[in-house]
Amino acid sequence: MHITTSFFYGHQNILNNKGFSKFPMFICTAILMFGCKTGTLERNKNYNKKPNIVFLFADDLGWVDVSTGNTNGNRGSKIYETPQIDKLASQGISFTNAYTNQNCAPTRASLISGQYPTGIDNQVYNVGSLNRQDQRTQGFPNLPIKPFKQQKVISEDGINIFDVFKSQGYQTAFVGKSHGTPHPLKGDYGIDLPADIHHIITGFVQGEKTKSYYLALNSDNVGWTFGSEYVDKYAKPYDQEYIDGVLKPCNTQSELSLLKATPKHLTDAIGDFSVDYIKEKANDERPFFLYVPFHAVHSNVVGRKDLTQKYLKRGLSKRIAEYASMIELLDQNVGKINRALKDPNGDGDFSDDITNNTLFIFYSDNGGIYRNDPLTGIKGHLNEGGIRVPLIVCYPDIIPENTITSQAVHSIDFLPTLADFAGADISELKKKDGSKPQYDGVSFTGILTGEETRLSRTNLFWHLPGYMDERFSPSTVIQKRFGDDYYKLFYFYETEEFTMYHLNKDISEKTNLLKNPTSKNLEIALNMNTEMLAWLKANNAPTGTWVENGGKVPYPKGNGVLKYNN
After folding, report:
1. Are residues 294 and 381 in the same domain?
2. Is 17 helix (H, G, I), strand (E, B) or coil?
3. Residue pair 366/301 in contact by the 8 Å Cβ criterion
4. What's the confidence (pLDDT) of residue 487?
5. Does residue 409 sit in the same domain as residue 482?
6. Does 185 reside within a domain?
7. What region holds the Sulfatase N-terminal domain (predicted)?
8. 352 phi and psi, to 5 degrees?
9. Is the Cβ–Cβ distance between 11 and 44 less than 8 Å?
């Protein structure tokens, strides 16, 4: 893709050259050793290289599904164990108000495109379609609104996050789940290594068509496989060498002997692939952007046998034991990848450490699939349980360690933020047709470095012109910060009704402030109502059409909340 841009300084130390080993040897107990000391981008402006960036993206991991309390207001899980993520939180910055869209595809599409679903190069509002009403949908089958017909993947014509990195000389790699982008991952998306893979593996085994979730298949045609030309080299069953060299040092308190000769889990394979990529690229003059969208912990939930048994012995149900197993497996691979930065060639000598030159991000794509107490809702809802997730970012000497921010950020904000670190001026980018791309996100670099405590932007938006079972109907949401207080206003197109919540005091969204509004609450609601309407108009947001007459469903009235004035 043709891109015009400006270039300015990067920031990282020159590394010692070391060779690479072929087998991933790492010690998980020493994984998150890099120190994120106070500093700014300016402190490193004399360095002549740009930082590597590693972006780890969990799937369906909820706000309270990690054991650290840094990302969730001291509400860390007492059931699920995530020691590596916990260490990362202690050595970087954690966001308690990190947001996504309501499920996988639109969040990933917004992250990669830098746009809300309303963006011209995005248009991905939901997984599959907005036409997902069923018997669980209130009013089904006589629903009044015909949903908007969305796109399933973002446009190749936009300048996405991979294109931005390419404009600055980065090598780009994608290993894991492709959602909001095509699968197989083909097209002009700026990705040098498109190792996308699905967590459902199919093939013929002993003459019968077989389907497996997460676990490699021993196919009649190709042997052990994940159905990926890139990841199949890691598909062989667990053997003693792998158990001793990779898993034992993690001190999982599980019976690793249960794994010998059993099928490899895709989560481990994605981790192994990422480790080898880092080994290969660690000493390159050109920096790399490694994007790792894990499938874990998406359903069908399949843990790793040793970890599942560990949690079953604690008396958990089979369902929750599998989920806990998968979360810990994800955590181990977060550590595995981080260890590769500390010791790329795996020889135990940290002289080839590149953590000081690497921005490391851990994030989830939507809320959890099980209970997210105290948050209301799960994946697919626009309540906090569906859209609030863990986010941790670390970069030694740039990002202060063990810090926490309540600043609200969204998946749209990563493109401009990471562009800052890569040295790209996104205002100078141009698309194929010569036009400038439009981005909805803002950079939160100043929040990361500690130079700012708040963004000048005060609002975020969600817009869904369609249905998904019982979890959403046509609606628009605005969240707005007034000082340090976050409020959230919902508008429902079918009924033309609003609800509003004060998240600081009502994180569970139980008390609708418009039921008996004070004059202050009504003033806040009117302000948000006005901004919601302005945003819808500015983005030409679709609303679907009325089934009865085919007319366009109108936007909310600019003063619609005043009807609640008693």
Report:
1. yes
2. coil
3. no
4. 98
5. no
6. yes
7. 51-423
8. -100, 20
9. yes
3-state secondary structure of 533: helix
Q: Which domain holds residue 491?
A: 474-566
The residues with which 171 forms a beta bridge, in sequence order, are 288
* Same-domain status, 480 and 423: no
Which residue among 28, 36, 104, 394 is the active-site one?
A: 104
The pLDDT mean for the chain works out to 91
Identify whether 463 is a catalytic site residue: no
Please tell me the predicted confidence (pLDDT) of residue 314: 96
Residue 206 backbone zone (phi > 0: left; psi -120 to 50: alpha; other: beta): left
Whole-Å CA distances, 215 to 174, 212, 237, 257, 293: 20, 6, 9, 17, 17
List phi, psi (to 5°) of 33. -95, -5
Task: State pLDDT tens for residues 424-472.
Answer: 999 999 998 999 999 999 999 999 999 999 999 999 999 999 999 999 9
User: 480 and 369, same structural domain?
Assistant: no
Q: Examine residue 225 and state whether it is found in any structural domain, yes or no.
A: no
What was the pLDDT predicted at 1? 46
User: What is the 3 state secondary structure string of 150-192?
Assistant: CCCCCCCCCCCHHHHHHHCCCEEEEEECCCCCCCCCCCCCCCC
State the virtual CA torsion across 344, 347, 351, 355 in degrees, nearest 10.
Answer: 30
**Rounded to an integer, what distance in angstroms lies between the CA atom of residue 95 and that of residue 388?**
10
Range 135-143, long-range pairs (CB < 8 A, 24+ positions): 136/469, 136/470, 137/467, 137/469, 137/470, 137/473, 138/470, 138/473, 139/494, 143/467, 143/473, 143/494, 143/547
Q: Which residues contact 55 (CB under 8 A, 6 or more apart)?
A: 289, 290, 291, 292, 361, 363, 414
Percent of the chain with pLDDT over 70: 92
Residue 37 tokens read as 């000391």
Q: What is the DSSP letter of 408?
A: -
Is the pLDDT confidence value at 412 over 60? yes
To the nearest 10°, the Cα dihedral for 233, 239, 240, 241? -10
- Whole-angstrom distance, CA of residue 70 vs CA of residue 391: 10
Give Cα 419 distance to the centre of its chain: 17
The answer to whether 306 and 254 have CB atoms below 8 angstroms apart is yes
Number of Cβ within a 10 Å radius of residue 490: 20
What is the C-alpha separation between 332 and 248, in angstroms, rounded? 11
Catalytic residue among 179, 265, 295, 298: 179
CA distance 477 to 99: 13
Model-level pTM?
A: 0.91
Long-range contacts of 486-490 (CB under 8 A, 24+ apart): 486/97, 486/408, 487/513, 487/524, 487/528, 489/525, 489/528, 489/529, 489/532, 489/561, 490/382
Same domain, 511 and 400: no
DSSP 52: E
Residue 298 annotated in active site: no
User: What CATH number does the domain containing 534 carry?
Assistant: 3.30.1120
Please tell me the total count of domains within the chain.
2
* CA end-to-end distance (rounded Å), the chain: 57
423 φψ region: left (φ > 0), alpha (ψ -120 to 50), beta (else): left
Q: Compute the distance between CA of residue 283 and CA of residue 233 in angstroms, rounded to an integer.
A: 23
